[in-house]
Amino acid sequence: MSTDAAIEITGLGKTYDTGHVALSNVSLSIRRGEIFALLGPNGAGKTTLIGIVCGIVRPSEGRVIADGFDIRRDYRRARATIGLVPQELATETFETVWAALRFSRGLFGKPHDPAFLEKLLRDLSLWDKRDAKIMTLSGGMKRRVLIAKALAHEPRILFLDEPTAGVDVELRRDMWRLVAGLRERGVTIILTTHYIEEAEQMADRIGVINHGKLLLVEDKDTLMRKLGRKQLTLSLAERMDAIPEALADLPLELARDGEALVYTFDSQGERTGIASLLRRLQEAGIGFRDLHTEESSLEEIFVNLLKAPR
User: Fold this and answer.
1) Measured by CB atoms within 10 angstroms of the end CB, which terminus of the chain is less buried, N or C?
2) Could you tell me what percent of the chain has a pLDDT over 90?
3) Which PROSITE patterns does this UniProt record tie to the protein (predicted)?
């Protein structure tokens, strides 16, 4: 295992008794202290992968090393380094928030530390709910308790499985503020999310998984450069019903009911073709009032990747 890897996954596979292949030959190295976003549609294998690393799901094949410990041969020490925020809400309905955190911390052999737990609850806006039974809390507050429980034993690796799905804006903001602080302290964070703008904003690297196979792993900025496209939108001086035949060979589309032309180009190519485009528009007698460029979002890149043949 690389010394700078928090998690090393090699040849991981999971086939259920029904014959369903949830994961197929997944290999992945996650660096210490990074935020790694795992993207994929429902059923892609994200939760199965997290379940295996956290010791909840037994793999059919392959090996996982977490913080230097084999998750099968040295389960207890491996699991003690990991915090998990699952998608499901808390079930210990009759416990108080404070009791749940004390239990979670003690479960991993950590000494009682009221000051640490108080800070954790304050960071998650839960301090005034510390004596409340979990059954009395709202869905958003229960989600906060899940996060607090995952962090109670001070893990070095934190899994966030759709942590902000269906929660309010305030919790999402608190969540990402907490994540940023954890990262500064060297905690490795792996998240799955359907809010792709969150991955685009927070992640250092991105993996895309579909049908149990890892399609790619790339630094976010490199991925944007490699797969991103730029579009030049020209607001036309006069409305157009169709693109003239003289321009049919260009990657042009009509937009805004014929009031704009959109030209798509590779921003990393040797030539963008914009100079040639403007010249040919002039030759065709097509005028425009304004122009601006836009870059592909990560969501557009993600959708295009999933459309690619398997």
Assistant:
1) C
2) 43
3) ABC_TRANSPORTER_1, ABC_TRANSPORTER_2
CA distance 181 to 19: 42
Which domains, ranges and CATH numbers included, belong to the chain? 5-225 (3.40.50.300), 229-307 (3.30.70)
Report the Cα–Cα distance between both ends of the chain, in Å, rounded: 30
**What DSSP element (H or E) covers 53?**
helix 46-53
- Specify whether the CB–CB gap between 291 and 267 falls below 8 A: no
Cα 7 to Cα 47, 48, 183, 293: the distances in Å are: 16, 16, 16, 39
Longest dimension (CA), the chain: 78
Give residue for tokens 């949830």.
22
| Distance of alpha carbon 90 from alpha carbon 217, whole angstroms | 32
CB of 69 closer than 8 Å to CB of 240: no
pTM, two decimal places: 0.74
Q: What is the mean pLDDT of the segment spanning 109-117? A: 94
Handedness of CA 3, 5, 10, 15 (dihedral sign): positive
3-state class of 164 per DSSP?
Answer: coil
Q: Give the separation between CA 238 and CA 177, rounded to whole angstroms.
A: 48
The one-letter amino acid at 191: L
Let me know: does 151 contact 83? Beta carbons within 8 Å.
Answer: yes
| Cα gap 127→256, rounded to integer Å | 51
d(CA 157, CA 181): 14
CA distance readout (Å), 268 to 225, 265, 278? 7, 9, 19
288-295/260-265 β-pairing: unpaired
3-state helix, strand, coil in the chain (%, to 5): 35, 30, 35
Reported residue count of the chain is: 310
CA distance 234 to 240: 12
Which letter does DSSP use for residue 162 in this model?
A: S
In one-letter notation, the amino acid at residue 162 is E
